[in-house]
Specification:
Mean pLDDT: 96
Bound molecules: zinc ion
Largest sheet: 7 strands, mixed
CATH superfamily of the largest domain: Zn peptidases
Number of helices: 14
Number of strands: 11
CATH class of the largest domain: Alpha Beta
Helix content: 25-40%
Radius of gyration: 24 Å
Strand order of the largest sheet: 1-2-4-3-5-11-6
Strand content: 15-25%
CATH architecture of the largest domain: 3-Layer(aba) Sandwich
């Protein structure tokens, strides 16, 4: 099978993908508010001949773009949300806001979506050549990755379970196939309603909502000793009542984040946090209201798909850089406030061989751009952090890659990432990602045995069943909004 024809197609259409990436970068829209970004994707995909549906699952900025007929059905996932406070001049080597107080693509989701779309374009071209009934490709526009976890809502609504496989990627500072798992995570906001009163003159008439938040936090603090060691509970007080100490605070709100490896365990732990919140309300004579914010599951690895991605990554090759790009990246590296001492890649702390290889290739971590592919290393290790790709991976075999789009060691969610995400380094990364994913998908259409093997592995790893962290009836919302009583 000559896959080059299709990776060449990505090169032919390169300007389209880069333009979309740069425009999404400029829009820099926050989670669940990616209206312009979603509109742009839908327009470009329609023009290419995809059948586009938006919104889906009641999420306004989500879409699906399909092409082809019959099985296998392969899903390619894209994201496009930005982060607050990270507006930054493109290709800048020092911190300079583009829009005062504006948002920015600090996680590179502008490239994530565009690179995935490039893959979908190439796969469509392949399916066109193969003719009717040879398979289907669906490019999913998944909003709100940073907040909202739309993929988990889409999981609850049955979007992923009918796919044969799903493929995605994430911009990073090195080239690797992502393996290993992460945390599941549930966010819930708790609001307490009390009664305001003069704190000195008539304290007996007051019921403090702030006391309730404090007691809840203390209760959870004691819970921490009696929960599994890999579980985590974090919180942020999103409303501390008022600013006058001489008033009994009549309202207060706290946002909790419960993490455990398995969603099943996070859901159990979540119930204990709920009980503590109820206890705090009772102790203070306040009224409690809680709101589910979002939740996502850990990722299920798939060695079959990961190996296939690696094979294609080797074939496609990694981006090559000009001297100018290397100089620019070196300046970004110089701008880090804290220099990373870790070598690039997730597997360097798991395998001595990979560590040795990466050490040499990265010149002991001093190269400003990681212009090499890290050997594939299958891992079942848990890495702290969460992604809603997890919920996809519990419902269909899923795998992902990282492609270097940022300078080496670039901090996550940083202005340096925003700067680089609108540069030729980022552009090369997204084109490379598109090619690797497209080639992998084509292999899957060509050889049903690979899908069968991926499916067998998937069935074995998910035999306990999927525990959806998103309750029935919940709709995607952002945290921090005031809960009305
Ligand atoms: Zn991200």
């Amino acid at each position: 099978m000559d896959k080059k024809k299709y990776t060449d197609y990505i090169d032919e259409k390169k300007d389209t993908f880069i333009d979309v990436s740069d425009r999404i970068w400029e829009y820099a829209e926050l989670s669940l508010k990616e209206f312009k970004s979603c509109e742009l994707y839908c327009k470009v995909l329609k023009e290419e001949g995809f059948e586009v549906e938006s919104p889906i699952c009641g999420i306004e900025t989500a879409f699906k773009a399909s092409y082809g007929s019959g099985r296998p059905v392969i899903g390619i996932l894209g994201e496009y949300d930005a982060l607050t406070g990270l507006s930054q001049v493109a290709e800048g080597t020092e911190r300079k806001e583009l829009v005062e107080g504006g948002c920015g693509h600090g996680c590179g989701h502008n490239m994530l979506g565009a690179g995935s779309m490039a893959a979908a374009f190439a796969v469509k071209k392949y399916l066109e050549d193969k003719g009717e009934g040879s398979g289907t490709v669906i490019f999913f526009g998944c909003p709100g990755e940073e907040g909202g976890a739309s993929k988990a809502f889409m999981a609850r609504d049955g979007v992923w379970k009918d796919l044969d496989c799903a493929i995605t990627w994430h911009p990073g500072d090195c080239n690797q196939v992502t393996s290993g798992t992460c945390n599941s995570c549930i966010q819930t906001e708790y609001a307490f309603k009390g009664i305001a009163s003069h704190a000195a003159g008539a304290p007996e008439y007051g019921r403090s909502a702030l006391d309730a938040v404090e007691l809840m936090n203390i209760g959870v603090q004691f819970l921490r000793e009696h929960m599994p060691s890999e579980a985590r509970i974090h919180y942020a007080i999103t409303d501390a009542g008022g600013e006058s100490p001489n008033v009994v605070q009549p309202h207060a709100q706290v946002l909790y984040m419960v993490r455990s490896v398995l969603a099943k365990d996070a859901l159990e732990l979540q119930k204990r946090v709920d009980d503590i919140a109820e206890g705090a309300a009772k102790m203070t004579g306040t009224v409690l209201k809680k709101k589910f914010i979002d939740g996502c599951s850990n990722t299920v690895t798939n060695k079959v798909l990961e190996s296939l991605l690696y094979k294609n990554f080797e074939e496609v090759g990694v981006p090559e850089y000009t001297e100018k790009e290397k100089e620019y990246a070196a300046k970004l590296v110089d701008s880090y406030e804290i220099k990373k001492t870790r070598l690039p890649g997730a597997a360097t702390d798991e395998s001595e061989d990979i560590k040795k290889y990466v050490k040499e290739k990265s010149q002991n971590g001093t190269k400003p751009l990681n212009d090499f592919l890290i050997p594939y290393y299958y891992s079942s290790k848990m890495r702290a952090g969460s992604t809603d790709v997890g919920d996809v991976s519990w419902l269909t075999p899923t795998a992902q890659i990282n492609v270097a789009c940022f300078a080496a060691g670039s901090p996550g969610h940083s202005w340096q990432n925003v700067s680089c995400g609108h540069s030729s380094i980022g552009h090369k990364g997204l084109i490379c990602a598109g090619k690797v994913m497209a080639s992998t998908a084509i292999d899957l259409y060509e050889d049903p045995d690979i899908i069968k093997a991926a499916r067998e592995e998937f069935e074995e790893k998910t035999e306990d069943g999927y525990y959806c962290p998103v309750p029935e009836g919940a709709v995607p919302v952002l945290s921090g909004e005031k809960i009305e009583f």
